[in-house]
TrEMBL record:
Keywords: 4Fe-4S, Iron, Iron-sulfur, Metal-binding, Oxidoreductase. Residues 1-206 form the Aldehyde ferredoxin oxidoreductase N-terminal domain. GO terms for molecular function: 4 iron, 4 sulfur cluster binding; aldehyde ferredoxin oxidoreductase activity; electron transfer activity; metal ion binding. This is Aldehyde:ferredoxin oxidoreductase. The keyword Thylakoid does not apply. Its cofactor is tungstopterin; [4Fe-4S] cluster. Transmembrane segments: none annotated. SUPFAM superfamilies: Aldehyde ferredoxin oxidoreductase, C-terminal domains, Aldehyde ferredoxin oxidoreductase, N-terminal domain.
Amino acid sequence: MRILRINTRTRTFAFESASPLGGLGGRALTARIIATEVVPDSHPLSAANRLVLAAGILSGTSAASSGRISVGAKSPLTGGMKESNAGGQFARHMARLGLRAIIIEDKPESPAAPCILHISAHSVEFRDAAELSGLRSYAAQERLCALYGPHAVSALIGPAGEQCLKAATIQFSDSDGLPSRAAGCGGMGAVMGSKGIKAIVLNDDGDEHAPVADPEAFRAARREWAGILHDQPAPDAASPSFGTAALADLLGLSNHEEPRHRIEPFEGASRICGETLAEAIDAHGASTRRGCHSGCVIQCSRIFTDANGAFVTSGHPHETIWRFGADLLIGDLDIVARMDRACDELGLDSLEMARTLAIAMEAGLIMWGDGPAALRMLLRVDADEQLGRMLGNGAAFAAAAFGVTRLPSLDTLRIAKGDPRAAKKRERIHPAAGPASTDTTVASIASDDTLGHDPHIATAAADSLGLCIFVAFAVMRDPRGLPCMARMLTALTGSEWTEERLKALGADCLSDERNFNERAGADAGAATDAHHHSVATDGTPWRKNQ
Ligand code: SF4
């Protein structure tokens, strides 16, 4: 496996051996590269920052649900190291090109039209992309398909990334060719925009297959692995029929036990829950049970269409539905889906933008529950105007601008599932990881000491292997999970993997993140309890003006 290093100022590139990085992959690899190559107190949008895209150790193999991509950088949103994890076809195609990671460094000396990086097995083409400048994601992907073929596998930014806004995402094309999979958290799109890159396209000339040390043992282990994932009951794992929205009803209706957080459940929860979503999808003739990348056996994704069967959006997860829905009091799946699509089009993190719109509602700019007004406000980010820029820089920025003091964020990053109505312990944050952990990649699974494993270490390890977060449930709850993962890795790499080595992979990754964040000045200790940010200092619920 190789590392591809691209300099965006000199427009040069080099292929390097990945061996010095000790066989790391995914999140562990992005963390190690950022920790060793980025000066912790450098500006996230400066030439000193790196943007790292890393495939997992299992990416490119036939192991189920192993095609996730990790994107890492010093985050413009938090000021600390951030890894953002996405689906799509990118990681598998990187593996076919023999690439474990792509490191994008430096930045153009003067602002210029953005460019496209077209990566082949042995070369990189820098192509000026003036015609793509300012394009929304779906239109940009269409142009890329016209330039590079109908199945172009891409990572691209929307208008938010081009403006270097802190909530900007990188959008990855999925197995349907749609740019619907977002590396959403931490402003990775702003870092890509700062380096003058509109899109990265992987050529399809790659024909490398991950070398497997013991093919027969690997086949047996990955068959068992697929069986373990199949056996996980919904909603503990993502539900193929309802999608992860199966959780929206459960969490939207539950009360938290802590009195100062108690607010009434959202009465419209049943209008946005997984069952209602599945019924709407059935009635509209769309489809559930889709994978965000080929090779996923859980398949929690789906296409959402309107009542006339016209495509609206793809793969909006439960977090997006309950953040735009229950948190903003919008009990309308169609509007919620259009807001998700708007985020994909503009290249914005839907969770950060839901928090930001809540700030706008708290400030009285729009009414709680007014879906059409919320959608119109979201689309103002596209206009490159002052209000749009305030919103596109996220909830903390908007709160400062609008004078809102109750801010559901940890430092400057929105809490992924900070809903005080949610299940007990749901938002406990690992003190070791600091701001990097406030994402679905780590912090938002139920934390239960009876599981016998640290969920943060388990998910950091899964992220490093290229596995979806939903396999973490299998790893933590099924005694066959960890031993099976270890057998797969031993058969793949030819070196001995044990449960202890897997845990060390996750723990070392968290350690790299923590050490960098401490050197960058982040207060890791403040991350031990995120809930205090969701209430005012007098203990009142943060949403009081509904
Ligand atoms: S379970 Fe869902 S999010 Fe995870 S890899 Fe499969 S489709 Fe993607």
